[in-house]
From TrEMBL:
Keywords recorded for this protein, A-Z: Signal
Protein name: Lipoprotein
Signal peptide bounds: 1-17
Phylogenetic placement of the source organism: Bacteria, Pseudomonadati, Pseudomonadota, Alphaproteobacteria, Rhodobacterales
């Protein structure tokens, strides 16, 4: 019985190892915005 179990585990490992690999998702690029510049009390210099 243990030989059948070992064979089943080996076959399951081979099947999972031979599956087509899916590409890893790439993160979206981070958008960097400039800091707002202080323009005085009323918004004009």
């Amino acid at each position: 019985m243990s030989k059948k179990l070992a064979l089943a585990l080996v076959l399951a490992g081979l099947v999972s190892a031979c599956q087509q690999q899916q590409p890893a998702p790439t993160p979206a690029p981070v958008v960097v915005a400039p800091e707002p510049v202080f323009q005085g009390k009323y918004g004009a210099n």
